[in-house]
Amino acid sequence: MSIKLQQLKHFTLVVEEGGFRAASNRANRSQAALSTSIKELERILEQPLFETGNKSKLTPFGEICFPKISQFLDVYDRLNNDLRADAAGQQGRVRIASVPSVAAKLIPSVLGAFSEKYPNVEVSLIDDNAAGVEARLLSGEVDLALGNYSQLEEAIHFTPLISDPIGVVCLKDNPIANNPEGIEWQTLLEQPFIRNGTCTLLNSTPARILSEQALYSVENITSLFSILELGIGITTLPKLAFPTNETRLIWIPLIDPPLERQIGIFQLTGRTISPQAQQFYELCVQYLNYQKE
After folding, report:
1. What is the DSSP secondary structure assignment for residue 194, as one 8-state letter?
2. How far is CA 115 from each of CA 108, 111, 284, rounded to the nearest angstrom?
């Protein structure tokens, strides 16, 4: 016969409470049931745990067993608590990759709410471009990824969250800045164009010619803004990628063609994510959909 966990718990209760009566009250069991449980344990071990004439006094064998059983039950209780906390998403780790504009503008608020609700969960956030966040998800480096929709592989499931309009970025003293309500792409043909990573969003439109004829190509967003501030060209960017505290540059919506990117959250198709990642996923959906409304 195998030793039952309940038998070990009953044994330690009797020792800790100094007798069967107090132990039965604490266990909410009858003395007879507790006594039967202990006798079954003694039968399995083939040794008495309590002296025959004094049921509250341990035998020498019982003295050996008590610290070992207590240590095992402590480990069991910690394991039980840890597993339940993990299952509830209360501890553990979640790894996220995000395009920089989403990481800077949207993730902080979600992360703030997440850390308040799940203070013991470790969060790892990695910035990368759109292709990079997808690659990190596919490789298993991260649990979730946030970015803009593209022709994704079948292995990736995309949940759309918000729409992010595309616009033109230039110096405020540029003549085209006199059209703050919107601008047509043809108006930009005579402007030196700076291609960046998000310009692939123009590819399916007539405005792709702007990117194709670009004089400059800059991938790093910090470098891009430094060059734009020199006044040597203009570019197109999603609105989320434009700094809210920018003083020298202006973002103007592109109205012909009107373009936007779909921002959402990626996870691997058919793969169960961890409870911690699931909690972060649900919070992103809840918060960003609220922002959209």
Report:
1. E
2. 10, 6, 13
Most distant pair of Cα atoms in the chain: their distance:
105
For the chain, what are the domain ranges? 5-87, 91-161+262-292, 163-260
Helices within the chain (DSSP H only): 5-17, 20-27, 31-45, 60-87, 100-105, 107-117, 130-139, 208-212, 221-228, 275-292
Peptide bond connecting 160 to the previous residue in cis, omega within 30 degrees of 0: no
Task: Report how far residue 105's alpha carbon sits from residue 116's, in angstroms, rounded to the nearest whole number.
Answer: 19
Q: Which two three-digit tokens encode residue 115?
A: 């850390």
- The yes-or-no answer to whether 5-87 and 91-161+262-292 have a common fold is no
Angle of the 275-292 helix axis to the 60-87 helix axis, nearest 10: 30
> What is the architecture, at CATH level 2, of domain 5-87?
Orthogonal Bundle (1.10)
CA dihedral 200, 202, 206, 212 (to 10 degrees): -40
C-alpha 156/C-alpha 145 separation (Å) is: 10
Number of Cβ within a 10 Å radius of residue 115: 12
pLDDT at 291: 55
Q: What is the CATH number of domain 91-161+262-292?
A: 3.40.190.10
Q: What is the pLDDT of residue 54?
A: 76
Using DSSP's 3-state secondary structure scheme, residue 150 falls into coil
Burial 132-150 (b: 16+ CB within 10 A, else e): bbbebbbeeebbbbbbbee
CB within 8 Å of 118: residues ≥ 6 apart: 89, 90, 91, 276, 279
Sites in the chain below the pLDDT cut of 50 = 293
Fold annotation for 163-260: D-Maltodextrin-Binding Protein; domain 2 (3.40.190)
Which residue, chain included where needed, has tokens 């800059």?
218
Q: What is the pLDDT of residues 183-206, one digit of tens each?
A: 999 999 989 999 998 898 898 889
